[in-house]
């Protein structure tokens, strides 16, 4: 990152060692991993970087490659700390254990099989949660009221 003139020397050296921390305005530092803002004081920065959350995230970020799940699991457009699964239309926290749990789960595995079949047959893949909506949209004339029989417009109830 670019050196900001108002950052004192000790803090500047510390920020150089931690590339995920960057100056965010006068007297503030932002963590790019968590979005957390903290005062630009050496004691605060050291406490933050030695904390459990930062250590866990930095270790995960170093070791885990989210790109391996790519065309199906992509960064979320709505929340930058989450990923989005295009097969199940679900948001997943950007934590290795959460991504692995999702990818190994029944819902994802079933969706992946369906997706691969659609690719072989050359049909457009429709996620499971949208399939029912499409079927409902196909029969607009069948107006069912919950589990009751279809409602007929001709019959009018008289008191």
Automatic annotation (TrEMBL):
Pfam families: SURF2. Residues 132-159 are annotated as: Disordered. InterPro entries: Surf2. The lineage of its organism: Eukaryota, Metazoa, Chordata, Craniata, Vertebrata. It comes from the Eukaryota. Signal peptide: none annotated. PANTHER family: SURFEIT LOCUS PROTEIN 2. This is SURF2 protein.
